[in-house]
Structures are given as structure tokens and as C-alpha cells.
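REQUEST
  id: r-88c1
  op: predict_structure
  target: RNA-binding S4 domain-containing protein
  payload:
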Amino acid sequence: MAVAMSIFHRRSTDLFKALVIRFPKQYFCSIAGGDVDEGKERSSDRLGSDSHGKELDLVLACLRVDRVAASGFGIGRNKIKNLIASKDVFVNKLNTSQSDLVNEGDEIDLTRSKEKDKVVMSRFKVLTIYKDLTKKAKRRLVGVRYGSMIISREEFDKDYAHPSK
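RESPONSE
  id: r-88c1
  status: 200
  body:
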């Protein structure tokens, strides 16, 4: 809170707004008024909800996995192509090929690092794909890019489908 006050006193309102948006409401508002339900977690306070990710509005020529993942994660297409070939990209917890198409609601997971006890991943979730094309005949979609997720190696091996060799 002291950081927020010092930022506010320096009149750096952009940083103050970013700080206020990052933390849940109960850090800045009084709960005495009773506007927060006791014992219930609001969906906006859960990790992995839309408030903990960065919403992106993307315009793409096609909805292939390599193009959507490259734009969603901010990585070059050649690097994504190599990650797909090395089986580090999953769509809805299944391994994918670069020519597969993305649908609304799909979650694209990118494995950042695999260690013996944990796996670090990033996630991009496709929220909306607009039916109409832009003036240059491209597709528009809205998605959310989440930060790094750390999951246990056992959970990763259990949930994510690996190709049988």
C-alpha cells in the first residue's frame, strides 16, 4: 500500500491505475459496507480468470495454430514452428500440428521449460472469433494471454496427451 501511496503522491496516475487493476478489490476498498460476499470467491479474483491475463485483439490472415500462437504469445512464426515440431505446443491439452485450425474457446498452451519436478507453461485462450472479415479479407479474434503457470510434472504427464512413438 505504501508503494501505491508514493506513486499517487508523485502524480503518476498511469502506474497507480495499473497497480489498482492488478490487485483484487478488497485491498483498496472497505469491506465494512458488506459489498463482498463472505466465503465466496468471485470469478474475477481467481488465478487464470480474464482479469489476470492480457486481453489481445488480433487480426490474422488465417486461423492456423502457428499463426494464432505466434501472435498470441508475441513470438516469431519460425520459433513457434520449431516448438510445435518439438511437441511443446498443446491445443486443449492435446499435441497439435501447425496446420490445425483454432476454434472459439480453445486454449493454446506453450511449454516454456520442463524440469524433473515442475513444468512452466504459458497459456493463450481464444475468446471470440468474429465471423465477418476485415477490409483486407483477414479474420479478427479476441483472446487472453496469461502469464507463466507452474504445474507439477506428475500433473503435466497425467493431463497433457503425448504422442505414442
